[in-house]
């Protein structure tokens, strides 16, 4: 069977990288675990959807030479097998592919998000376990410590003191995604001392709520997680529904850069730092 263009390019990348790549490296499928691995100072041999990772996650950056094995939900197993990794790291999102991965190498599966469960304790445990397996336990402890320091900085600088807050992502001109306490962003807000105005939601990548729902907590501070819908801030300026929100008229809206909604501890620490720094209001 003739390879398609994606497979051809992937195999070309493999051949280019092979002189510097020894069998027994690590392949990682989940982005939260990829960013955590890089923050631990460990560079995998292969990872998934690296161009999209650069756009959505960005930090820590993936060094040149890491082989892109295709989509997270449907990686190129032939390419992955040819790399002969010693370990494949997945999250609970990819358990349905475990059998296929186990035919290639040992699999380490670590949870990063479970609907209805607090996210930050899961990420802490998974970070420490990943650090242990990769021989970087002290660095893993440092990542946990950095998040705690970031959360403490929010308490010290912003003085939440139980004030209401909400973290959202704009799906389109009329709908938002809400980050409850089972998410990374909602978890950081609550840990820092805010009262999450939408704590009991169950997060998904759909946009289940109308923008008007945000007006129910008129006094809340509103953190908008990027990316913004097409048109960006200009589109918001022309959106009458958005402009009518009490948080907007009072200047209690903070626009964040793009952050991975299912990120790891490094993303959580970045979010805390953005809150503490007082990102620009809109």
Automatic annotation (TrEMBL):
All copies of domain Fe/B12 periplasmic-binding, residue ranges: 25-282
Compartmental location: Cell envelope
Highest taxon in the source lineage: Bacteria
UniProt keyword annotations, A-Z: Ion transport, Iron, Iron transport, Signal, Transport
InterPro entries assigned to the protein according to its UniProt record, in alphabetical order: ABC_transptr_periplasmic_BD, Bact_iron-sidero_bind
Pfam families associated with the record: Peripla_BP_2 (PF01497)
Signal peptide start and end residues: 1-22
Cited Gene3D superfamilies: Nitrogenase molybdenum iron protein domain (3.40.50.1980)
GO cellular component: outer membrane-bounded periplasmic space
Family: Belongs to the bacterial solute-binding protein 8 family.
Protein name (record): Fe/B12 periplasmic-binding domain-containing protein
């Amino acid at each position: 069977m003739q390879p398609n263009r994606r497979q051809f390019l992937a195999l070309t990348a493999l051949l280019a990288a092979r002189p510097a790549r020894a069998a027994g490296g690590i392949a990682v499928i989940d982005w939260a675990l990829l960013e955590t691995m890089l923050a631990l100072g460990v560079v995998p041999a292969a990872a998934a959807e690296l161009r999209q990772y650069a756009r959505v996650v960005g930090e820590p950056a993936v060094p040149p030479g890491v082989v892109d094995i295709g989509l997270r939900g449907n990686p190129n197993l032939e390419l992955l097998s040819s790399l002969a990794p010693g370990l494949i790291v997945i999250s609970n999102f990819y358990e349905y592919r475990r059998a296929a991965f186990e035919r290639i190498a040992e699999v380490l599966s670590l949870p990063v998000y479970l609907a209805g469960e607090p996210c930050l304790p899961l990420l802490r445990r998974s970070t420490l376990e990943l650090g242990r397996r990769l021989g970087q336990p002290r660095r893993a402890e440092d990542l946990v410590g950095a998040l705690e320091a970031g959360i403490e900085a929010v308490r010290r600088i912003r003085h939440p003191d139980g004030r209401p807050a909400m973290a959202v992502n704009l799906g389109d001109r009329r709908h938002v995604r809400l980050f409850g306490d089972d998410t990374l962003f909602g978890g950081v807000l609550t840990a820092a001392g805010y009262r999450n105005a939408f704590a009991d939601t169950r997060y998904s990548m759909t946009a289940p709520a109308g923008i008007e729902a945000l007006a129910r907590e008129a006094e809340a501070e509103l953190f908008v997680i990027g990316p913004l819908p097409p048109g960006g801030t200009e589109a918001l300026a022309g959106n009458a529904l958005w402009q009518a929100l009490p948080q907007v008229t009072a200047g209690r809206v903070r626009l964040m850069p793009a952050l991975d909604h299912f990120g790891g501890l490094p993303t959580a620490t970045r979010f805390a730092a953005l809150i503490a720094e007082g990102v620009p209001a809109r």
